[in-house]
Every structure is written in C-alpha cells, then in structure tokens.
C-alpha cells in the first residue's frame, strides 16, 4: 500500500455546495487518494456565549461557522459528487451529530482533529462505529497520545485501524518547526499506522515525512487563497496541490527497491563519463605493455579503467596506433 494523501478541504467550501463540488474536482485532479471536509455544527464545538478566544472575536467565529452549516441533503450531494468523480470522501466530525451523518454517508474513515485528541468521551463514541480512525496529534504530549491510544485500543481501534498523524498546530508551520523526528517516536511507541498533517507552505516536510515512514499525508487545499475563511490563506491552490502530490509520489518511487543499482538513464551517462583504455603511443605487435603505454580517458570502451591491472606486463597480439582503443582481442582470443 502506498502513501494515502488526504486532500483536506476542511471548511474551505464556505457553506457552498457548488464550491465543495469544485474542491472535489481539484482533489481528484491532484491525484490525492481522498478528499476530506470538516462538518462543524457550532453548538457542538463552541460554548454559546461571549468570551475571550485568542486573537479571534468569538462572535465573528460563531457567525462564520453558522454560515458554513449545510443540511444532511447537501452533504449527501457533496459526497455523491465526489464518488461520481472517482475520489473517496470523508470528514472530520466534532460532535455526535457529525458522527451520525458520516455513518449514513458511508465514509471510508473518521477523522478526529487535534483539538479532540484528549476528548476521551468523543473518542469512545467515534470508535463505536468501527471505522478506521485518523487522529491528529497537534498540541499533544506523548503522554496525551498514549492515553488516547489506550482508550481507543480498548474500543477495538488499534494497529492499522488507527492512524496517528504527527501535527504541529501552527498555521502555517515553518519547515524548521515541524519536528519530523516525532514520526519515528509515534511509529515505535504505538504500533499503529503513522502519518503527517502538513501545515507548511511547501512539500519538503511531507516528502521528508514519507522517508521517515509516514503512510498518510494530509494537506489543506483551496480553489483560491484570497477567499474569506479560516483556512484559505495557508492552503494550496490547485496547481500547487497537484505539484505537492506529484512530489510525494516521486519520493515514494525513489524509495522502492530496485533490483539493479544502475538504471537506464545512469547507464547512458556512464558510457560517456567513465574512462576506457587507449594507446598512449604507437604500440607494435608483441610488445609487453607498460603503464606508460596506456591512456585512461573518456569515453568508456570495451576495456574499462580497472582493466589496466589485467594487461600491464602482458604482450599485445596486434599493433595499436596512438589514441586508438585497447580491446580485449589484443590479449585474449575468443573461443
């Protein structure tokens, strides 16, 4: 099984079915393995009151989230569109209502956001559906993750049915802050599938994650980074998303076992870049070859550079003019 790339549409559909359908198209065209949304019902995620909420105005956050709410019928239409286009569709759920909807939509996996990694009641509820669970680990210590893994294991979600995504919950993340070595920690600590939820603005971190053993990659994308909303500005536009996926696929290919070390392209270079044996001067037939008789220069010929040890001190059977190639039949007769 290759790397599963999740094209993370998140909330970038902006409450529009038509925009979601455009996102499905972009995800399919990029070569991603699935497209994923966030199904958010504000009352199931936020306290309904006025309070301090970091650098956001909570009233504005609640307004935007409410505008993004879609009906079950609209979500059914979006998922059906993705299926028709040939790309599996899933979503992050944040409450019971979202989980129940995803069950009716027959999604291939359930995504749990980093914000809910320690929400053990919700983890148990999600695990009861028996689907593969993809859980992001941003903002979490190793002990936080261990506790959640233990909770899910008791509910039968373990091994390959659990995917732990290493994640740095900064938007965007700087490449140097991605702490990719933690992928090895996850891989060796829990025996689950591991991946990387990428919030950087390039593909370098994801490619490095794949070399470290990540088998799932999640990347935010959009149709247009200038659109209003929480996630557009740090998401990949269609051309960039396609290049992102292509980079990961190329890294996957580079990590595959090759039965021969030298490929066709490299062998072509070898023919001109390696050296062969040539006569440094006119050499008469019968002369015993000395080191001074031989030039070792490009291009490679029938006598590669290492062959000099086989012919120095041996008589040559035929005359060779200066700068002409030395050939095996000058010393050995074929039988």
From TrEMBL:
SUPFAM superfamilies assigned to the protein according to its UniProt record, in alphabetical order: AFP III-like domain, Aldolase
A GO molecular-function descriptor: N-acylneuraminate-9-phosphate synthase activity
Residue ranges annotated for the AFP-like domain, each copy included: 276-334
GO-annotated biological processes: carbohydrate biosynthetic process
Pfam families: NeuB, SAF
InterPro entries: AFP_Neu5c_C_sf, Aldolase_TIM, PseI-like, PseI/NeuA/B-like_N, SAF, SAF_AFP_Neu5Ac, SAF_PseI/NeuA/NeuB
PANTHER family assigned: N-ACETYLNEURAMINATE SYNTHASE, SIALIC ACID SYNTHASE
Protein name as catalogued: N-acetylneuraminate synthase family protein
Organism per entry: Puniceicoccus vermicola
Species lineage: Bacteria, Pseudomonadati, Verrucomicrobiota, Opitutia, Puniceicoccales
């Amino acid at each position: 099984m290759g790397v599963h790339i999740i094209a993370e549409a998140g909330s970038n559909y902006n409450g529009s079915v038509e925009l979601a359908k455009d996102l499905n198209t972009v995800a399919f065209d990029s070569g991603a393995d699935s497209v994923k949304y966030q199904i958010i019902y504000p009352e199931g995620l936020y306290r309904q009151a006025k309070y301090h909420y970091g650098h956001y105005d909570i009233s504005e956050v609640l307004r935007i989230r409410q505008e993004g709410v879609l009906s079950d019928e609209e979500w059914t239409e979006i998922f059906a569109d993705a299926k028709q286009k040939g790309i599996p569709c899933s979503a992050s759920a944040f409450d019971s209502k979202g989980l129940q909807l995803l069950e009716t939509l027959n999604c291939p996996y359930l995504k749990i956001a980093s914000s809910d990694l320690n929400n053990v009641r919700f983890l148990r509820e999600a695990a009861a559906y028996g689907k593969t669970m993809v859980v992001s680990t941003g903002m979490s210590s190793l002990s936080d993750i261990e506790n959640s893994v233990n909770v899910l294991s008791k509910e039968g979600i373990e091994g390959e049915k659990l995917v732990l995504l290493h994640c740095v919950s900064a938007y965007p993340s700087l490449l140097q802050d991605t702490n990719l070595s933690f992928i090895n920690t996850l891989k060796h600590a829990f025996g689950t599938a591991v991946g990387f939820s990428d919030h950087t603005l390039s593909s370098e971190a994801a490619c490095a994650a794949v070399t470290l053993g990540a088998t799932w990659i999640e990347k935010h994308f959009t149709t247009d980074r200038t659109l209003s909303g929480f996630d557009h500005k740090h998401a990949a536009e269609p051309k960039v998303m396609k290049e992102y996926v292509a980079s990961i696929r190329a890294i996957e290919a580079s990590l595959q076992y090759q039965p021969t070390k030298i490929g066709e392209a490299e062998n072509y270079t070898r023919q001109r870049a390696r050296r062969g044996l040539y006569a440094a001067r006119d050499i008469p037939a019968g002369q015993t070859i000395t080191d001074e008789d031989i030039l070792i220069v490009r291009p490679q010929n029938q006598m590669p550079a290492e062959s000099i040890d086989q012919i120095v001190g041996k008589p040559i059977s035929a005359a060779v003019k200066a700068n002409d190639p030395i050939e095996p039949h000058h010393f050995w007769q074929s039988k």
